[in-house]
Amino acid sequence: MLGAIDAASEHLEKIKVFKNNGRGMQLYLPIAELPLNLFLLLGMGGAVGFISGLFGVGGGFLLTPFLIFIGVPAPVAVATSSVHIAASSVTGAITYWRRQALDIKLGAVLIAGGLLGTVAGVLFFNQMRRLGHLEVVITLSYVTLLMSVGGLMFVESVGALVAKRRAGGTPAPAGHHAPPWHRNLPWQITFHRSKLKISVLPVLVLGAVIGFIGTVLGIGGGFLVVPALIYFFRIPTSVVVGTSLFQILMTAIAATILHGTISQAVDILLALTLVIGGVIGAQFGVRTGQTLKGEQFRLLLALLILAVGIRFAYEIVGEPRELFVITATEPER
Amino acid sequence: MRQSGLFARFILLLALAALPRPSSAQEMVVTLSTREVAITSNFTGAEITAFGLIERDARFATRAAPFDVVATVQGPAGEVLLHQKDRFGPIWLTAARKRFGGVPLYFALLSARPLAEIADADTAARLKLGLEHYLTLPPPLSLQQGREDAGFRDAMLRLRAEEGASIIDASAVTMIRPNLFTAKVQLPGKAPTGLYLINISVLSEGVVLRTVQSGFVVRKVGIDGLLANAARSQPGYYALTTILMAILLGWIANIIFRRD
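Predict the joint structure of the above. Result:
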């Protein structure tokens, strides 16, 4: 009997040798419930933060799919992305605010409109879910929206760049010559920072439309706000980015608190890692953004939006390698 | 509260496992290298070893054939939702979905040689040797639905194996002596927390001689346990802390980068 136990413990020693091959800097995440590479998370947070600071978008449309891809459960990925969005937009927004390139008044009107749009979006979402066509509607409208916005911006900004090269001088900026269709509406307000005196109505409507689309499609909508403000209201690019970041910040704070209390899926350690990368990346993004000319900025944003659109189009058009997907695993509590 | 409840169940199981069964020809004693796997910040997975000793009963004629040992490990049960995509004109969308309830979120089948050589299908079904024996769906109403269910079941088994949540290892059991063995349980980093049951059966020539149950608990400790607990018990403060941390870090980054 004793001899047998000796033999067994000898065997155990052999097993242990196999176990101790180190696996880099792995960090166990308490809510996501899996270990992930620390540097991968820092790097991804930084890359998305850079894009956020540069374009005035939240970046959730990049970060959330990435987190799901590396194994984070979908609710945790969605909820934790909102923390990263809050952090990278706050650091960018402060910088723009100090450079007087943040229109708080405009942002506040957009947020007010956004609230109305969100409520309408939730009602629409539930109605469509009852009818069972939700996924088709969402996927198709997402792709259509991205491709058309990106395509139009691409054509416009390339045109502007070409015109500029031909003329050799300052091109007609994206605004200033267009007939302001919103000039004659009631409730005119002056937005000093944006150098704009317009009716509050179209801004409210824009906020509502973005809020509606964002809720139905599950996206923040920053990359729709930015082109809309540039093209419809002819606001200077840097003010657009700053104001968009401010609006995104407010949305992300609300989203984090709702996710944290209702779905309880916010992973604080995952958030911390992503945020540290994100705030540094965002600072570099803001800096880079300030050196870009308006049409260069619009071209790059157009390419980004097109790339995201193509990625989602490929997902539904390309034949999937695997027809079955595990979408959720819930432990029984 | 939940933890202590689990622990009590676990102790009870151990006690039951240790009770002698005088009617059986063979006795088996099993012990585990650990009864609690603690998840800390640097957790990337664990290995648990079960040691077992099969005692021959002198009153029975010694069997000529060697013993076979098969172990199954069931993690905490849960619900798994599976989607199936299909073509809709030019695009691919989700066409059907199935929900499997009571599925062990970790499952391992450990043996020293392929299961087909150890036990027949009836025995495998009776001992639930394989995740497929846990994938129960309501009885199909039509032939087509039956085919569909089978497709989903096959996909579940394949995908869970790819994810590392279902393991079939025909070399995880080592017979050190004809009556002494070890079974290695590999827990991946994403193993769910909760109670894990190990059922070890000893067979000879396809006949089940004895089955013993044991178990261990996987739980978060230290900072991970603290945070997971806070997220559930104090969700408001937890969310507020998270968002304040994000804003503070954003502000700090701003100050650091302001200099130049």
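The longest strand of chain A covers residues 324-331.
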